[in-house]
Amino acid sequence: MTRGGSVGLFDTGHRLKYPSGAAISDHPLWQLQLACGAAFCVSVFGVALLALGRARSRPQSGSWIAVAVSATMGGSLLALAIEKMLSESYGLGDWLVRGLLLVAAIVAPLQSSHALMSGRALPTFLELLGPRGDKPLSRSTMILGFTLIVTTVIATETALGLVFDPRWRDFPFAALTIIVVSFGTVAQLNGRKAATRPLAEAVFAGLFAVAALYMLFNEGFQNWQSLWIAVIYFLFGMTLWHVRSVAVVSAMAPALPIVSAEMLVERTDQRR
After folding, report:
1. pTM of the full predicted structure?
2. Which residues contact 166 (CB under 8 A, 6 or more apart)?
3. Are 202 and 208 in contact (CB under 8 A)?
């Protein structure tokens, strides 16, 4: 679109863009967007109530506050995330990435509210992709974990793009805010205290922290979208930093004696 078609009183066909007496709005479908946000907010609370009825133990005192925060963020920004996906996707790659990010923004608050009421922590990448031992993960935990993986991959791609090639790139702040706030509440309330910090999550946490600091000074303090997305990247890094793993040692421990025995046999044969 040429500059004359995007600014001024007349469009490219020399017609008035804003007829006299007509209402002007940046969001003409705001009523539909409001209804979708309210319905999604109610759905998050509904999932929390269902999980509470099946929970074996009583959730923490701050769980309902965390569910309310997650539901508020989802209800407030979900319609904006859909609008930005429809208006800022310019190719098959953009549609795929932003579509997956939107799906993650829908799934994350629902699964996070379930995890908050059930007392489940965020699973690590190794627990999802590595050996699982004698205790397989539940379906809801796997959905929560793979949503975290998808978000991490997409956030890494967008963060590196904004650092090394920021020209003509949009800030996916709406969808990422929904996801990061939801995962952050689970990591803070249901985090594992006495456990090891996984290496993969620590690496991604450092990457997001460095990218946030770079964007903060590179874009300046006048661009509110860059400030917003920098804060979200930093919070996402903190969320991944709080993820702990207790299943790594237990899952790998049975394999250690076997490896040691094989090494002893090989050394014995070599000596003979």
Report:
1. 0.81
2. 218, 219
3. no
Burial of residue 63 (CB within 10 Å: 0-12, 13-18, 19+) is buried
pLDDT digits (tens, 9 = 90+) for 52-99: 888 777 777 789 999 999 999 999 999 999 999 998 888 898 899 999
pLDDT tens by residue, 172-192: 999 999 999 999 999 999 887
Q: Which residue has the tokens 């860059």?
A: 226
Q: In angstroms, rounded to a whole number, what is the distance separating the alpha carbons of residues 73 and 264?
A: 57
* Contact assessment for residue 175 and residue 104, using Cβ atoms and an 8 Å cutoff: yes
Beta bridge partners of 250: none
CB neighbours (10 Å) of residue 70? Answer: 28
Decide: 80 and 98 in contact? Cβ < 8 Å: no
**Residue 150 to residue 232: CA distance in whole angstroms:** 16
Q: What are phi and psi of 177, to 5 degrees?
A: -65, -45
What token pair was written down for 124? Answer: 């690590």
Enumerate the H helices of 62-166 as residue ranges.
Answer: 63-88, 92-118, 125-129, 139-164
Taking the alpha carbons at both ends of the chain, their separation in whole angstroms is 80
CB distance 72 to 134 below 8 Å: no
pLDDT at 153 over 50: yes
Encode burial over 85-123: b for 16+ CB neighbours within 10 A, e otherwise: beeebeeeeeeebbebbbebbbbbbbbbbbbbbbbbbbb
